[in-house]
Amino acid sequence: MAILTEARPQVARRAKGVRNRDGWWAAFFLGPQLTLLAVFLVFPLGFAVVLAFMRWDGLGQKEWVGLDNFAAQLSDPEFGLAVWNTVKLALLTAPFGLALALLIAVALNSVKGGGFYRVLYFMPVVTSSVAVALMWQIILAGDEHGVLNASLERWFGITGPDWLGDPGWVIVAIAVVTIWSSLGLNVVIFLAGLQTIPPQIVEAARMDGAGSLRIFRSVTLPLLSPTIFFSTVVAVISSFQAFDQIYVLVNPKYNDGARTIVYQVYELGFQDFQFGMSSAAALILLVLTLLVTLVQFAAQKRLVHYDT
Amino acid sequence: MKRALAILGVLALATTACSGSGGGNVPGTSGGQGQVTVRWSTWGSAEDLKLYEKFTDDFHKRHPGIRLKLESVADYEDYHPKLLAQLTSKTAPDVFFVGDDYIGKFVSAGVITPLDDQLSGPESKSKPEDFFEGIYGGAKRDGKIYGVPNDTNPEVLWFDKQALKDAGITEDPAALHEAKQWTMAKYLEMNAKLKTAGKAGSIFWNWYGSTYSMINGFGGKVWDGGKFVATTDAKSREALQTLAKGYQDKTFLSADTLPDSNGPSTQFLKHKVGFYAGGRWVIDSLKKGGELDNYDIVPFPSQTGEPMPGAVAASYLSINKDTKLPKEAFTFLTEFVGKDGQLLRLKGGGAVPSVKGAEQVVLEDKYPAHAQTFLDVRDTGFANYAEEVSVPGLTAAINEHLMKVWTGKVGFDEGMTELQKLVESKLG
């Protein structure tokens, strides 16, 4: 007992020393990351929030204008159009893109030697978005030289629309490109999710007489619901932030149908030099994204199953 | 001890990684052997930038103490946002190109050095009076010069003799112009005949050069006393309505909306259109067709047949107010825009010199037959209006809105009302 009592302060001192050393090492390794995070994320975000309440052209004096920038954006028909186009893009890409990825993932999960196909599906993800946009520009060209329209004409006798020029069709064209380029990533995520489903549950369902469709509906889908939920949140946020491919594929300056919120932010800031207005538009996008994500989180309580 | 050495090692690596290439991010840097590096920036494709190589080599030979470092951006639309970011963060080049639609903003912001004293001084190879007054545009404010036009591209009407002949047009536009009979009525009549013959009358790029030249041709005004009057002035409105009607019945084609595979140059080379509004750069496109003699140029017409001022695309060379090498920066600027500099770098290019005395660049090839027209339009023409260029994005917003009118997405009267509101809102 006495030995134990005497030993305790030494152990405590050693433990304290270890904790101190751990603290220094933690600071050493985390410091650069935290500094970068502060410099490149926290500070710009804070600056953008302050800027949203100011009028500033990037060079001259900043002027406090209160909520004027928000009011101007919310009453601007172009911003309304940008929000509507952004929502349309999310509604087209998230459900269709994820459904397609899920189907492919389920198929690949049951195929032997699926690695080759995984590489094929994943290739668009690692291809530069600008290269992707340029390739699709050739496919979707609206004249007789467009690969898609030429094929439609030759095989079905259908005259295709001007996919990238017609404001009514352009968002569909952008959605197709977005679905294509994000398909591989979603497939990989779903495949990972599918592989976490315990095979004995599937086997038990099969022994109870469930067919493939019933297993998919009653076992696979519920058990995959956390993965589907994660992918849905990510897909919606990505659609809300779509910019680079759209900018290369169609210049929204000449096609209102392709004007999205991020393009509006870019145009206001870097074409018109209205950085306050641009920050206000970016903040509205942030709030909109948060709201949609909150709705998704609210819905997950009823639709997502975390038990296996 | 080991830990201390490891930390020192990491710090040494970090220091090396952060040190970069010797302060290349700040304006004006010193190199080895007593040399200084003048950074300058412009936009342009690799082909465009090749034209500067001869000038740079020549400059390096004459000024061994100065090295020129070109920092280019391929796309015009991306160039000014980058320059703005560099100016805000005090990392902009010592000398930079500025487009005619942005110069006014940079002048207002006070980030450019006024050049009057240096341009008039003994070291100058490009005196203020060596450049045509009209093309200073927004680079001149309150009598002070903030940017020197480095070269120009006057907007003219290229015409296809074959297409006109096919449409039964026997008169030669250039001959009519020489006889002072090149009127707007005659031009529109030719466009109508071309349309009847199954061709398009004219192709325009949707920019201020062609739109404002048409307004001038109708005798209208765009800006008056600091106010945008293009939508209210009767003659300007008539010009815009003529354009809108022409675009909608396909007498006029918008080059911006034509597919890449069948763009304006292709249509012009295939004799599908009579007139193509453009600058000297069109020569490059025509060379691909191989029928050079089939094409000639004429200025935009006027109501009376008397020559009228046409639009001249210009860009300017300016010096960063924060440069640490003001003397060397000016040496580069004055030689770049001076007569010898323009003769050297514009030879074989598609631009027209902005400086007096370098006309042989345009005339020596004797192409097109009326190449003198480029110089005439330059000498009497105008760069974009100072009122317009002082608001970044205003010209682009006007063009964008007019495109909606040209394509019939917005009715003409409604479009004009909206355009007026748009301009007023941008002017604040």
From TrEMBL, chain A:
Transmembrane segments: 23-54, 89-108, 120-139, 169-194, 215-243, 275-299
Localisation: Cell membrane
Protein's membrane topology: Multi-pass membrane protein
Keyword Lipid biosynthesis: no
SUPFAM superfamilies in the cross-refs: MetI-like (SSF161098)
Keyword Zinc-finger attached: no
Keywords from the UniProt entry: Cell membrane, Membrane, Sugar transport, Transmembrane, Transmembrane helix, Transport
Principal place of residence: membrane
A Pfam family matched in the record: BPD_transp_1
Domain ABC transmembrane type-1 intervals: 83-296
Protein family (similarity comment): Belongs to the binding-protein-dependent transport system permease family.
Entry protein name: Multiple sugar transport system permease protein
UniProtKB/TrEMBL annotation, chain B:
Protein name: Multiple sugar transport system substrate-binding protein
PANTHER family for this protein: ARABINOSE-BINDING PROTEIN-RELATED (PTHR43649), POLYGALACTURONAN_RHAMNOGALACTURONAN-BINDING PROTEIN YTCQ (PTHR43649:SF33)
Pfam short name (any one): SBP_bac_1
Source species taxonomy: Bacteria, Bacillati, Actinomycetota, Actinomycetes, Streptosporangiales
Signal peptide stretch: 1-19
Keywords of the record: Cell membrane, Lipoprotein, Membrane, Palmitate, Signal, Sugar transport, Transport
